[in-house]
Model the fold of this input.
Amino acid sequence: MTAKPATDRVRLRRLHERGSYDRGTINAVLDAGCLGHVGYVSGGSPVVIPTLYWRDGDNIYWHGSSASRMLRGAEGTEVCLTVTHLDGFVMARSGFHHSANFRSAMIFGTPHKLNGDAEKLKQLELFMEAVFPGRWSQLRPTTAQELKATTILAMPIDEASAKIRTGPPGDDEEDYALPVWAGVLPVSVNYGRPEPCTRFAGTAEPPIVSLGLRTTN
Done:
């Protein structure tokens, strides 16, 4: 742990040794994915919505339709955005010590809406290029109507923490002699073979994907 928590509510209390408040660690967790969950209160009830996100510097962004209830409800109010990567199932010699290897990040903040078309275009390009390098230049230009129909929220990564578990199971000492298989069953996200649109009219290769995710033949 190379930094202190920004606030008490992001301080880890359970298994705090797995926690980190270091911005580099938090950014690495965020940059390794693109799917997160936004939690907020709507009409007095808690709501958690999955969303695609991206990071640019000290801010995290997500977007959607201007008619989105989630985006309208989250703008200007306090939200909690979480990101989790499952890296493996930890199989111990007892049910009690089974666990999972994972990387997660939690961010609290108040998002605001981007209003300028130039800034919205910049962020949409950053998002596209983060997932599909070189893709943006292949696409037709975004229209003014499409920009109007798109809302982008930005939130500073000021109040955040990461929690990470790695390694083998931690069994009770007397259980290590039991003839029960124990170890880690790795889990990873893989891209499958691209499936072209039935009305595809070009000859270009499928898009290259990033985010550290592996492709399969």
In short: Helices lie at 23-31, 69-74, 117-131, 144-148. The chain has a mean pLDDT of 89.
